[in-house]
Structure formats: structure tokens, C-alpha cells
Amino acid sequence: MALNKCFISLQIVNGYFVHFFAPPDLPRVPKNVVFVIDRSGSMGGQKMTQTRDALVAILKDLHEEDHFALILFDNEIITWKNYLTKATQTNVTEAIAYVKKIRDNGCKKKTCGTNLYAIFDVHFLIRLI
């Protein structure tokens, strides 16, 4: 396939880059997407704002045949729902409202930090229906 028939984009921001390369006319494949969001105290301020903004943009980009889940973690694991949710307009709207309320925990709890071990067990929390 000739490169002039492919979508190619390179974005560089703050010393980081992403390179998109996609042939045209690929059939769309339904996706199962699990968003795992760090909401520990280290995510305060602009980091959390950027995370929320990115999540909202990605959620709006999902198609109805896609499924998604939201998992928050710090010293505990919180799931928005315990299953992959179909990306209907209603579900995406509800998820966006939920995402807009996500805040870092700010280490105001008695136990602070990030429980990375628990996040590896999260696959037991989410099921496809």
C-alpha cells in the first residue's frame, strides 16, 4: 500500500509525541475499552483536569456497538459499574457526568497512596453482559 493512501499524523507536545498511521477504508471493529484512572493524591490539579478532559473526549468518540468500563484507583478500587457497558448515548452521557465529578483523593483519608496490587485483580470486577 502506498503511503500517500494512508492517514499519517505526527503530533509533538512538550517533548512527547504520538504517531498515527492508518490505512484507509478499514472496517470498524467494535471495541471493549476499560479506562483505569489514577485518582491518588499525586493526580491533583492540572493532571486530574487533563485526565477528565481526555476521558470526556474519548467517551464522546465511542460508537454504540462499543462497550466500556470505568475503574478508579488510589488506595482502593472503585468501579462505575461492575460490567462493560454498551456505549449508548444514555450510558455515555451518564459516564461523562460521572467522570466530571472525579477528583483526586488529596490524601485526606487515613490511608493514602496507591494500591497497585489491587488494580491487577480488577479483571475479576468487570464482566461483559
From TrEMBL:
Residues annotated as domain VWFA: 32-116
Gene3D superfamilies associated with the record: von Willebrand factor, type A domain
Top-level taxon of the source organism: Eukaryota
PANTHER family: INTER-ALPHA-TRYPSIN INHIBITOR HEAVY CHAIN FAMILY MEMBER, INTER-ALPHA-TRYPSIN INHIBITOR HEAVY CHAIN H3
Name by which UniProt lists this protein: Inter-alpha-trypsin inhibitor heavy chain H3-like
Gene behind the chain: LOC104952584
